[in-house]
Amino acid sequence: MSKKSLHEKSFSEKSPIEGMPIRDGDDRVKTDRRFKWLCISIAALSVLTLVILLASILLQGVPHLSWTLLTSGPEPNPKEAGIRPAIFGTLWVCTICAALTLPIGIATAILLEEYQPTHKVGRFIYGVIQLNITNLAGVPSVVYGILGLTAFVSMFGLFKVKGDTSPYEIGARYYDQFFSEGERSILVPVDHFNSPTIKLTSGMQALDVDLNSVPIFIFEPGDPTPTDDQLSYSLMADAEPGRITKKSWYYFSLPLGRGVLTGALTLMLVILPVIIISSQESLRAVPSSLRAGALGLGATPWQVVWNVTLPSAIPGIMTGSILAMSRAIGETAPILIIAGIVYISRAPEHLMDDFTVMPLQVYNWIGRPQPEFQGIAAAGIILLLVILLSFNAVAVMIRQKLQKPLS
Amino acid sequence: MSSALPVDSTDEIRIRDLGERVGRLMMADQRSLAMIRAREIGIYSLLILCGLFSLLVTAAILFVLITETFNFFRADEVTIANFLGSTKWNPLLGGTKSFGIWALVSGTMLVTVIAMLIALPLGLITAIYLSEYAPKGVRGVLKPILEVLAGVPTVVYGFFALMTITPVLQWLHGGFDVYNATSAGIAVGILCFPTVCSLAEDALQAVPRNLREGAYGLGGTRFDVSVKVVLPAALSGIISAFLLAIARAVGETMIVALAAGSLPQATFDPREQVQTMTGFMVQMAGGDVSNYGTEYYAMYAVAFTLFVMTLVLTMFGNLVRRRFQETYE
Q: Which letter, b or e, does each residue of A249-282 get, where b requires 16 or more Cβ atoms within 10 Å of its Cβ?
């Protein structure tokens, strides 16, 4: 019997239930086929979207890709504008952010997955923490920026700053800067920004511009002019100093202000729930037989975690963390809220230094009226996407290579 | 038998050595037992501290937003009736200040609705395709593409909206402003599309295989099985995915800051420019934030409104997934 005749037969048959016609088989197959093509075209649309997105950015950005872009600051002249301070800003912020977030995030995931409570109260608290983390993951990043603005930038106004410097600081040294008769800069260390000027005496040790110790010579207006070899480090007795501050890379002061550390802490709040949730999933994927085996050999809970669970879960945790960090690199809104739009022409030098990050610099350029800056913004986006895609590629590679089935 | 166990001096030494080593090992264990216990307790308390940190973050968000919003309402020019009842938002104009949140909420809603018109149906259909139809090869190509789309920073979508979508819209129809809600909405939709897709696909994949097999056994086509059997079974997960995507769209900042404009107005015309809640916050932060005037506190009041909206959506989304999940044994 051919296919067609079967079809005709089933079509002509009467329905077994009164008043309920047998549905046309051909019609159902047609619906299925139509739906399949709808699916395929929509899936193709998503591919097309990505292609258009990348193409439009490449078209606008590639002509502006240049060495200057990597090596110079955001100059007002589009020909000289670059993204170097922003690259270093991103590097600083994201490194500190990773160093702060990974331990706390993985520790929280271990607590929730590996130390299951037995008591009713404990289970309730765990439920609250878990619900809280799920909700934190849904909080818009701009709200974290607002939190950072109050909690880190001004620290609820708890630390009153009088004058130029904060009374709560470490890692800063102060100098009186003189300019010698030989046009050299001479630094005399002082205790504090507001300490009185030190009385200068001939023969005392001071510091030159590279902070090497040098003897200085003082002469009164009536004295004979110093010899040539003395001239570089000779000062008039009535020379007026300027007070300057040198800050180490770990310079720290309260309140935190709009510095690198604030940016890192704010981004930490943004990606902490992401890291916790992905680490929890990797820990959950470790088969419980491994844990049971270790416990049976007499291992303590932490020994189980450290020697058994964590090593098996580490590829998953790394993948999740890398993806979370790539999110931190691309995050703009919270940084914009805490740092504002300011002109930053150099890389940050210490924890409290002003900074900008790559996406914020791109945002800044998009907002400029000159059309050249749109092209530079596109070039900046290409750099940003290259970094993010390489992060994603590393994550995918770790997932493919290191993740072996454990059971 | 003594020949089987020859005991010469070297063996004696070896055995004594071994005995000593076992003894040392046992002594060592006994000695460190208290230390091991102390270490366990120490590590456990450290982990608990880390766990409590997330609670601290929530507490800090609530504390900051509530106190600063309170400061906002304490100002003379602000009334709760004006805030909740007016559609005029002029926080910066000296004489005629008005703080009607609806102007910003309507902007957010307009952008969100446009975004969801794109992201929800397309995301769901792609999820069905990936879960029920797609051959393995197509899946292997499509999934990474969706991951890349999900990983693109929002400022890039903002640039795309402003530089590509808007000119196309203006070319299609002359009435579009340079900054308009449609362009931002489309970009937010593209942003939310992978979120919807992956969450909905997870929900579809969680439906047990025997349901599908039963439906195929009854003579269902692929369409019948996926739309009439699998989809209803995964409905709670899909609704949860939708709600989470809406929350994401409501809180989206950089796209609307770049492409939606900065004119707060209660309009339903998608061709005009609007200002969203997040857009206002960015405008304030981009200007002079150290200004402690009423408009500075208005930023916190808007943030509080946004926080409440997204929190309700997220909580509801998670509740739906957990409560109404169909369980099959």
A: eebbbebbbbbbbbbbbbbbbbbbbbbbbbbbeb
